[in-house]
């Protein structure tokens, strides 16, 4: 279990996160969304134990961040995949990238070779094994970044907007990886794409330092998440009986839905206001 209890955090004077609590149970897939600058990455870094809260406690498996020695060991159970994989690469080939973390913690050569082979196979990276990670496509890079963290067998994995720079097919690949991990490790998946956050067992919203949630996918259209404009609009369409699906469309399709119905909604609004 990974947990923040009544955490407040600020970088400088201005408070960013206020009295925030969240718990991710073992095997759970939790998603988080919120506008740019709302503090999602900060929350991820607090959960990973990389940042320390000024108030409240961060805990991994019940070990508090205020006990630095024990907490330091626990931190290794948490992996993070960032939005830009380029910042994460250290070596000059995919297979060395996969081996790097294992070498660092002193795993035997034979075991490393075995795990690297398994990982190359699992992520269909065999043909890219000698390529420099920096020369790969965006989707391939993110796959290597994810593989190089998973090979270390973390118990908790945080994805911080890993799809933001990817094209739709690569975004789907990343999402499939996330879904394939469901139940095996605890995952915190951060995204600004409404169509992606519905993969979560629990969905959280962060706006202006306040965390809302958890809510379930089925509830998402029933609530007015007014600070997330696209979802808020979809909620109105849902309430009006115009949008009857239960899924959230992919970004392009979502734009189409909004464009198609924008006029209808504003017309109805003026009618209501005139009554
Ligand atoms: N290292 C830092 N020092 C000072 N301010 C920061 C730092 N990192 C982030 N911030 C500020 O904190 C706020 C939240 O940032 P962040 O957690 O990255 O949000 P998000 O990931 O939701 O975009 C932003 O206003 C950002 O400018
Ligand atoms: Mg961020």
Description:
It is a single chain. It contains nine helices and ten strands. It is α/β, with parallel strands linked by helices and 275 residues long. It folds into two domains: 2-215, P-loop containing nucleotide triphosphate hydrolases (Rossmann fold, 3-Layer(aba) Sandwich), CATH 3.40.50.300; 225-275. Helix 5 packs parallel to helix 6 and helix 8 (229-239) crosses helix 9. The protein is globular and about 70 Å long. The chain starts with a strand and ends with a helix. Magnesium ion is lined by residues 40-41, 160-161. The site of magnesium ion has 4 residues, from helix 1.
- The CATH class name of the largest domain reads Alpha Beta
Shape: globular
CATH architecture annotation of the largest domain: 3-Layer(aba) Sandwich
Number of helices: 9
Radius of gyration from the alpha-carbon trace, in angstroms: 21 Å
Order of helices and strands: EEEHEEHEHHHEHEHEEHH
> What strand order characterises the main sheet?
6-7-8-3-9-10
Number of strands: 10
What structural class do helix, strand and pairing data support? alpha/beta
Note the beta-strand portion: 15-25%
Helix content: 25-40%
pLDDT < 50 stretches = none
CATH superfamily of the largest domain: P-loop containing nucleotide triphosphate hydrolases
């Amino acid at each position: 279990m990974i947990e923040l209890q009544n955490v407040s955090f600020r970088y400088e004077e201005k408070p960013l996160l206020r009295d925030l609590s969240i718990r991710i149970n073992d095997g759970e897939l939790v998603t988080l969304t919120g506008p740019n600058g709302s503090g999602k990455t900060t929350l991820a870094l607090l959960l990973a134990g990389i940042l320390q809260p000024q108030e409240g406690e961060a805990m991994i498996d019940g070990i508090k961040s205020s006990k630095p020695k024990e907490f330091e060991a626990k931190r290794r159970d948490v992996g993070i995949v960032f939005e830009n994989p380029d910042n994460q690469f250290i070596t000059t080939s995919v297979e060395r990238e996969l081996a790097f973390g294992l070498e660092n913690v002193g795993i035997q050569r034979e075991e490393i070779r075995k795990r690297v082979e398994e990982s190359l196979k699992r992520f269909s990276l065999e043909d890219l094994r000698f390529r420099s990670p920096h020369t790969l496509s965006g989707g391939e890079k993110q796959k290597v970044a994810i593989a190089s963290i998973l090979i270390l067998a973390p118990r908790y994995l945080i994805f911080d907007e890993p799809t933001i720079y990817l094209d739709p097919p690569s975004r789907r690949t990343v999402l499939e990886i996330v879904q394939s991990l469901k139940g095996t490790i605890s995952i915190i998946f951060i995204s600004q794409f409404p169509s992606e956050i519905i993969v979560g067992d629990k969905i959280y919203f962060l706006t202006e330092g306040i965390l809302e949630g958890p809510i379930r996918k089925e509830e998402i259209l029933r609530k007015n998440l007014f600070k997330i404009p696209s979802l808020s609009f979809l909620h109105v369409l849902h309430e009006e009986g115009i949008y009857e699906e239960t899924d959230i469309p992919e970004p392009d399709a979502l734009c189409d839905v909004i464009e198609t119905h924008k006029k209808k909604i504003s017309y109805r609004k003026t009618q209501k206001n005139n009554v």
